[in-house]
Design goal:
It is a single chain. By secondary structure, this protein is mostly helical. The chain has 21 helices and no strands. Helix 8 packs antiparallel against helix 9 and helix 15 packs across helix 20. The chain is extended, with a radius of gyration of 31 Å. The two termini are 28 Å apart.
Length: 511
Amino acid sequence: MPLNDDQNSDSDSSRLSESTASSSDSEYSRQSFNSDSSSKPSSPASSPPKMITFDELMAAARNLSNLTLAHEIAVNANFCIKHEDLPQNSLAGTVKQIVHKAFWDHLESELNEDPPEYEHAIKLFEEIKEILLSFLAPGANRIQNQICEVLDTDLIRQQAEHNAVDIHGLANYIINTMGKLCAPIRDNDIKQLKATENIVELLRQIFHVLDLMKMDVANYTIESLRPYLRRNLVDYERTKFQEILEETPSALDLTTEWIKESIEDELSSISDESSSSPGADHSCKSSISPTLVLNNGYLKLLRWDYHKTIPETLITDEVRLQELREKLNQLKIIACVCLITNNMVGAAIANVPDFANLLKRISVPLLEGMSKKTFDLKEALNAIGVQICIKVNESLTARDLPTLNAEMQNNLMAQITSIVEKNNPVSSLIDKRIQLFMKSLLAPPSFRKCTPALPGGLSVIQPEMELVGSQFASIVEFNKQVYGPFYANILKKLLFPEAAIGKAGIEAPSN
């Protein structure tokens, strides 16, 4: 991954933000997309369609993989490589276990022969040597020469021919060398290796610890790269995506369709009178704010069916966006439950402190795993209704008040379980208010001095909504910085086709 230490992307973003703050949202947007200015160095160059080979397609896939990895390292502070074994009861885990057992059993039988057969063991030593050398920093010539000298496979073969291989001595040297090169977290593993007497089991465990050491090196490299990637990520991602686009001209097809759908949604919201007037389509399109189109497109991702392919420019954040969508769905249900409960039994719980948070604590565990196909939302809501009735009656009993009768309890539970129904009025209301709040977070900083106030009915989920909203706004802001020029070209062609003819790339607004 090509990296540099300059601060160009930071300064560009700063100047762009200052420019945006000095003009209104729609005015700036339309000026940008109708501009005749030439393409900037950071803007994507237009390239003619071309046929691509399989090798070019695979190269593009590798570029996308590198781009996704770099993005994940930079934005996810907890990203690291983890060592995970396949489940033993899985087919892959069973096959791996059988194959590995067969290999090590074969090695043991060779070493138990008279005289011993060392060919497979020598190949293992050769592999271990290469792994140890890969851990060395440039300039570590002394230990490099020592490893090559001790684990010289030609010499070991000569010794094997005369049955003079000190296999335990070689294993001890390898363990001691690993102890010098490993991270402190592996010291206990090294001690366990020294306590292992069976040579075959020892070699097997050596490879296991070497795998852990390779993982440690990878994670150290990730930590070292993270600050550089964060400083240069905007330029890096834009450059890598431009390479993908040049190798795969169709790499913006889904993004174009996503933006086109957002434009169509915006046009459909225009009054019938304007739509029916002569030349309305052209005039309506030219009056639409590109920023508004993009923001509405981003909001659609919070309702996206992630079984479909996400727009290409958002692949690097697909998992995060899907998690936000699932969290918002859960929060919507909680807000609906609280609103229904307050409306139906509000008088009974009016003087109970923190009852809204009690409702939330009841709901959250029962709504875990909502995104799974096997999850039965209606059943979960029924269980929530039962628990709420119990808590309400406990509260009423504690204050010597009459409890909810069977009819009231049945009505409350029926209202709660009806949340799953299509076009449920409570669910629709809460959904609109959540969308309104998320949309307000995408307003330009010059118009939004602080976090917008939550609409009514969402106070019970305020901390969670503010956290989700902050994460969503951060994803959107960064995505615009990276892919703004690509969006600009698409929007210009769709909204201002006459101005787009013959023009090169054009810079998009940052907000």
